[in-house]
Design a protein that fits this description.
Layout lengths: L4 H9 L18 H34 L3 H17 L1 H11 L1 H21 L7 H16 L2 H12 L5 H30 L1 H22 L12 H12 L16 H5 L2 H30 L4 H33 L1 H25 L3 H17 L1 H12 L3 H30 L1 H18 L29
């Protein structure tokens, strides 16, 4: 694939500014896959900046347009309905056109939708309908982020690194959401809520252009990938110990068998539960902190805690998943780890919501968010482990469950809180966390079906290579 002069200059930076000819494919000098995974971390952070900024600006938007929490809940849910409804098209497009094009167009799309929120005039008639429509379109645009990222993982990442890379990508969720409260609050205080949305749109446009310049759909297409790195990737995809379709369990034409797996339903239920709990933090934790007596700035500071814990939990969970899978097999590294993490989350939700001190309550609930995200990498890594190069569509089905759970909590949480109190809202979230923990017992990695090979019962053999 031809590259222009600007792209070549950027790629040369990955080679320490030496000419590409000094690094023939036989010399193991590059780690391009890790850099691109890091940029997916950036895109993930931008995605959550754009989707959670409205929860911070919600108080100002509600006052300007005369919206109560229940109506804001409809606006929050509109994003998630659009996000969930376009998961299957997003998975198909990611597989058909590759993560480079799909992510670039998707990020630019949701940047325009974010700016459109700020374009609405204060005196517009029926503002709820306009906000719902714009947030729905934002959700449709953002639907591509994780199916496309999962497609990247399937094409670029050896099996023994998938947990870490997925953990890195989803650490962007916590980083983006954690930086959003103080950043957006500062912009709102100094310049108004509309400028906060314009800023979010600009950041997305820059991140999309950088991805277009640096990324390629496969390692074979990337001129910055050395021969040693290419061999490591190929060995990890073919010899991950599970199957022969880019490290996945499925081979041949096994679409029907793949989507009739009972454990696909278990993963959807598990991620529905995950999404329900996560969106309690994304949509309502900031409001909950104000209910507990904090002012706007103090709420913003406390609202950062769960998301920084999510970042740490994602990285820890990804690292643990790979270590445990390598030593004890995929069932322990993916399934048992996720079960423990979601169970612990449920316990922290119950304890935190009943503490009298708002400071201790915020801290304990934040730790619960971190525990939840220890399981995040497992959902996405196991999609590649099972589906290989078909993981874009497979993971989009799982992700649809998570977004439907988020859509439910965005609207249901304030209703439960208004009728039964915020403690009951967190109790419902805890119950969903326990259901999600149980669902992992139904994932059967040892079961062979038509076109499948059985997964190893013990550890994975890391792919050998001359690249660390």
């Amino acid at each position: 694939m031809a590259i222009n002069k600007f792209e070549k200059r950027v790629i040369l930076s990955l080679k320490r500014f030496r000419p590409l000819t000094q690094y023939p494919r036989s010399i193991p000098k590059s780690r391009v896959r890790i850099f691109l995974a890091f940029w997916l971390f950036i895109l993930s952070g931008v995605a959550f900046l754009d989707r959670t900024n409205i929860s911070i600006a919600g108080l100002q938007i509600g006052l300007e347009y005369g919206l109560k929490n229940e109506l804001l809940g409809w606006v929050f849910s509109a994003f998630l309905i659009g996000y969930a409804g376009f998961q299957l098209p997003a998975g198909y497009l990611s597989a058909r056109f590759g993560p480079r094009k799909v992510l670039t167009i998707g990020v630019l799309w949701w940047g325009v939708a974010t700016a459109a929120t700020a374009w609405l005039p204060p005196n517009i008639s029926n503002p709820v309908a306009w906000l719902i429509a714009i947030r729905f379109l934002l959700g449709a645009g953002e639907s591509v982020i994780y199916p496309a990222a999962n497609q990247f993982v399937a094409r670029w990442i050896p099996q023994e690194e998938r947990g870490f890379v997925n953990g890195l990508i989803f650490a962007g969720v916590g980083a983006g959401s954690g930086l959003t409260p103080p950043l957006v609050t500062w912009i709102i205080v100094e310049h108004g809520w509309r400028d906060a949305f314009y800023f979010s749109a600009l950041v997305g446009a820059v991140a999309a252009l950088v991805w277009w310049v640096l990324a390629r759909d496969t390692p074979e297409e990337h001129p910055g990938v050395s021969g040693g790195e290419l061999r490591k990737i190929e060995a990890g995809l073919l010899d991950g110990g599970v199957g022969h379709d880019a490290g996945g369990l499925v081979t041949g034409n096994s679409w029907t068998s793949l989507f009739l797996r009972k454990d696909l339903l278990a993963l959807v239920v598990g991620y529905f539960s995950f999404g329900y709990v996560a969106w309690v933090y994304f949509s309502w934790f900031f409001v909950y902190m104000t209910v507990r007596g904090f002012n706007l700035k103090a709420s913003a500071r406390f609202d950062m805690l769960p998301f920084f814990c999510m970042t740490a939990g994602s990285l820890l969970g990804g690292w643990l998943s790979d270590r445990l899978a390598t030593r004890y097999g995929l069932r322990v590294g993916r399934c048992f780890l996720a079960t423990a993490a979601m169970g612990i989350t449920g316990v922290f939700l119950i304890i935190g919501s009943q503490l009298r001190s708002p400071e201790y309550a915020g801290l304990v609930l934040a730790i619960g968010a971190g525990a939840l995200y220890v399981s995040q990498s497992s959902f996405w890594s196991i999609s590649v482990d099972i589906a290989g190069r078909r993981s874009g569509l497979f993971s989009s089905v799982v992700n649809m469950g998570g977004q439907l759970g988020g859509a439910l909590t965005a609207s249901l949480t304030p209703v439960i809180a208004s009728h039964f109190g915020w403690t009951s809202s967190f109790a419902v979230a805890a119950a969903l966390a326990f259901i999600g923990a149980f669902s992992w017992f139904l994932v059967d990695l040892d079961r062979g079906i038509e076109g499948y090979e059985r997964a190893p019962k013990r550890g994975l053999a890391p792919a050998t290579s001359d690249v660390p």
